[in-house]
Amino acid sequence: MTLRNKQIVIAVTGGIAAYKTAQLVREAQAEGAQVRVVMTASATSFVAAKTFQALSGNPVAITDNGLFDQAGMDHIALARWADLIVIAPASANSIAKLTHGEADELLYALCLAHQGAVAVAPAMNQQMWSNAATQENLKHLADRGFLIWGPADGAQACGEVGPGRMLEVTALLQLMIRQFENSAFAAQHILITAGPTHEAIDPVRYIGNRSSGKMGFALAEAALAAGAHVTLIAGPTHETCNSRIRLINVVSAAEMHHAVFQQVDDCDLFIGCAAVADYRLTDVASEKIKKSDNTLCLELTPTADILSDVKQAKPTLFCVGFAAETEHTIEHASEKLIRKNLDMIIANNVSCSDQGFNSDYNSVEIITADNQESIARMRKTTLAIKILDAIHKQLINHKEKSNVRFLKKSHST
Ligand SMILES: Cc1cc2nc3c(=O)[nH]c(=O)nc-3n(C[C@H](O)[C@H](O)[C@H](O)COP(=O)(O)O)c2cc1C
Fold first, then answer.
1. Helices 92-99 and 106-113: angle between axes, nearest 10 degrees
2. What does the pLDDT look like over 111-164, one tens digit per residue?
3. Which one of 55, 131, 347, 403 has the minimum C-beta count within 10 Å?
């Protein structure tokens, strides 16, 4: 009973996927949760409130009519009652209203009054999902700490195919359970590197790589949601992050190395996700190199290896590396794990065009000295949660072995 004693408001807005929410209510209750259902007026034209009333065993709140509060302020009573609010499906309209802090229906007033976590499970036509307005709204919500669960890709009720399907009930249930396990990293300081580095050739040119920083930023967000203090040291990227994440921007491998060593002393976990350049120019030209008909040779010098250096300086610190490979992924990553004395390595094959570098998706192998787990292709935001789960499990073993300061076990029972 992973949700035992948890008080969860499941909110339904006006979308086709509302029929699946009936199952979600049942499954959450089967896991021990107490569930109260809130609906928007529009949602009641998709599934009758009676269905949710019968399933949850509670009246369904649509307006502030005193079902849960004699003073008639149900939105306040529910806001205080809920440990978690899950809006599933979250229509494009509801996402826009939440973004703008509207309060013209009970659900939106409830979300404004609630101090805890609110998760939205978007469900809509793929064009509505891709529309810049929806994407910008979700970015704002994510920045404000809303949890964005999904959507999934696939066939849609409207006959189109693409992103916008509500996550399946089992996936939503897992995320709900995960939400209550997120004290796993409470008060821990997690240091993460992300993105590429740029190695100057001259004042206008550099050597870089295709890393977008999306994975490292997703890990930082997931670590924040799991209760950690997060420091993110990022090379040049277009990614943005929650203002509660301490972001340190760097450009070169040397700068990243320096920044890491300034932070690493008081960190409890180090995740080296950045695609750090292996080489830098031996001599950076002080003026722009002029074009000529001659061949130009650039001499490269190896850069310092941040992960190896961290592990050498802090042998008891749990260190996680990433290996981006184009062939023999597992062999190369396993060799790196041993050579750098890492505790875990996340290996991925970056030769596929639809995942890895500069994509929102990836599939990885999580490799430790005594285990290997394959994680199928999924959004990096979901993958980040899975990677942190694996780290958390491994850290408990690590703590037992090396007696380093670390973790509380998760609160969930
Ligand atoms: C048959 C039908 C299906 C719809 N499905 C969706 C949907 O899946 N997602 C969505 O965002 N809007 C969908 N809409 C539009 C919403 O119902 C509409 O924007 C409504 O105002 C949403 O209200 P609410 O979000 O406040 O509940 C659908 C409309 C109709 C008529």
1. 40
2. 999 988 899 999 999 999 999 999 999 999 999 999 999 999 888 888 888 889
3. 403
Residue 157 CA: which ligand 1 atom is closest? 8
Q: In testing the pocket of ligand 1, which one of 21, 38, 40, 42 has its CB within 8 Å of the most ligand atoms? A: 42
Query: What's the CA-to-centroid distance between 124 and ligand 1, angstroms?
Result: 8
Domain ranges of the chain: 7-180, 189-402
CATH number of 7-180: 3.40.50.1950
Interval 350-397: pLDDT, tens: 766 666 677 788 889 999 999 999 988 877 877 898 899 999 989 887
Q: How many CB atoms lie within 10 A of CB 338?
A: 10
The phi, psi pair for 335, rounded to 5°, reads -65, -40
Ligand 1 pocket, Cβ-based, cut-off 6 angstroms: 13-17, 40, 42-43, 91-94, 123-124, 128
pTM reported for the whole predicted model: 0.57
CB hemisphere CA count around 373 (13 angstroms)? 14
In this structure, what token pair is assigned to residue 112? 């404004």
Q: Checking phi first, is residue 213 left (phi over 0); if not, alpha (psi -120 to 50) or beta? A: left
If one residue of 93, 99, 135 were mutated to test the ligand 1 pocket, choosing by the most ligand atoms within 8 A of its CB, it would be 93
Structure tokens at 133: 């307005």
Judge if 7-180 and 189-402 fold alike in CATH terms.
Answer: yes
- Please choose, from the candidates 320, 300, 324, the residue with its C-alpha nearest in 3D space to the C-alpha of residue 310: 320
- Burial status of residue 123 (CB atoms within 10 A of its CB: 0-12, 13-18, 19 or more): buried
In angstroms, the CA 63 to CA 67 distance is 9
Match domain 189-402 to its CATH number in 3.30.360.10, 2.40.10.120, 3.40.50.10300, 3.90.1150.10: 3.40.50.10300
